[in-house]
Amino acid sequence: MKKTIGDLPVLFNEKENCCGCSACYAICPVEAISMEPDEEGFLYPAVDAGKCIRCYKCLAVCRFKEEQRIKGYYSRGICG
Amino acid sequence: MNWEAPKVYAVKHKDISTRMASRSGGIFTALSDNILEQGGIVYGCVLTDDFLAAHVRAEKAEDRNQMRGSKYIQSDLRGVFKMVRTDLDAGKKVLFSGTSCQVAGLQGFLGKEYDHLCCVDIVCHGVPSSNVWKAYIKWQERRNHSKCVNVDFRNKRDHGWAAHIETMMFASGAKVDSEVFKNLFYGHHILRPCCYQCPYKSTMHPGDITIADYWKIRKAAPGFNDNRGVSLVLLNNDDGNAAFEAVKEAVEYRACRIEDSLQTPLVRPFERPECREVFWKDFHKRSFRFVAKKYGGYVPENRIAVNVKKLKKKLKRLLKTLT
Q1: SS3 B47
Q2: How confident is the model at residue A79 (pLDDT cuts 50, 70, 90)?
Q3: Chain-chain contact of B82 with A26 (C-beta, under 8 angstroms)
């Protein structure tokens, strides 16, 4: 039987919601996340769909989005 | 658990050479000395050989010393959180320093509290783009016809604690003071997008101890300032309090009130400039000279003076060929 596989984790919808702390990169058990610079030179996590096992530890570890939610800054888009 | 409000101190390291080598009053050196003396490990941000910021691990004071001073770009943390966990699991005392979001990131990654971890966060203005910083260095190298060999984001030794002048040293021996990058930084176009919605721009921080330049020192502790640097120290919980108690001998300090100490980043994040997109369009499409003029307060040299200089050079060459 074919195993169903979950959605790829979306680590941020808007750049405003990622501080680039690398916690998601560090916690990934299969090294599926790399930190890639954007056109301004800031590092953002990118998930390799082939390596990702959909454990979603990267979503659970994110403190920044959580703190933004508490502060009311996180109004755009929902992820994690 | 962090307290509901921090305990506030103005701090100066008793050793003046330590204070002059530090951005503020030297509290980071006092705290990290205490960790190193116990065989502990200090993590912090340094400037790499190519003038970018990265977090590194230090076991010795000479490596820790590289962490002192301002770095106005975001540091690369790749690989560091796992190293911290390895040290903690080996029972080593660890001091981790960084911006509030970096400290919170580490705490999230660790997922549990360690008694032998001390987190120190710095009051951050927001992190500027490393691409703009790199373009700025290249521009200065072209203007000075020489490779940059050293940079000081904020030269305290020559200009005092409160001044904000960046200094670059070149292979040719030239030394250039400039305020162009500072102006770009304070224009806020080049901050990371999340910094305009930073949840740590308040008196509450994730670290055990939060440190900064004490810009409100005249109000908070009259007579304490000598323009050689004063640290603002916020003790956020019992662990931070204990860490500060352990280094009190090494520093001069005064208890202050938080209400007298409220510099902007302790109140709210800086606003995203309306023309942020315009800046980035300019940065990607135009020369750095254009950007420096429009956003960095750069005033080009007098064209006539430059032309006279060139003419003199030409004449000299001509005379040489004639004689």
Answers
A1: strand
A2: very low
A3: yes
How far is CA B100 from its chain centroid? 13
What is the four-CA torsion angle of B213, B26, B71, B151, rounded to 10 degrees? 120
Q: Which residues of chain B make contact with A61, given a CB cutoff of 8 A?
A: 108-109, 111
Picking from B129, B126, B75, the residue whose alpha carbon sits closest to that of residue B272 is B126
Residue whose pair of structure tokens reads 């000081």 in the numeric block: B152
Residues of chain A that touch chain B, judged by Cβ-Cβ distance less than 8 Å: 14-23, 25-27, 35, 37, 39-43, 61-64, 67-68, 70-71, 73-74
Calculated CA dihedral for residues A46, A49, A50, A52, nearest 10 degrees: 80
B193 and A16 within 8 Å at the Cβ level: the answer is yes
**For residues B60-84, average pLDDT:** 97
A7-22 per-position pLDDT tens digit:
999 999 999 999 999 9
Alpha carbon distance B215, B28 (integer Å): 17
With tokens 């975001």, the residue in question is B74
What is the distance between the alpha carbons of residues B201 and A31, in angstroms, rounded to a whole number? Answer: 32
So what's the ipTM on this one? 0.91
pLDDT of residue B178: 97
User: Which residue, A31, A1, A10, A33, is CA-closest to A79?
Assistant: A10
What are B90-117's pLDDT values in tens digits? 999 999 999 999 999 999 999 999 999 9
Sorted by where each begins, the domain ranges of chain B are 7-127+191-266, 130-189+286-322
Fill in the amino acid letter for B299: V
> What pLDDT band is residue B300 in, cutting at 50, 70 and 90?
confident
Contacts of residue B238, defined as CB under 8 A and 6 or more positions apart, other chains included, come to: none
Q: Would the CB atoms of B78 and A62 count as touching at under 8 Å?
A: no
What pLDDT digit, counting tens, does each position of B200-223 carry?
999 999 999 999 999 999 999 999
Q: Residue B305: in which H helix or E strand, if any?
A: helix B303-322
Q: Domains of chain A, with CATH numbers? A: 15-71 (3.30.70.3270)
The pLDDT of residue B305 = 77
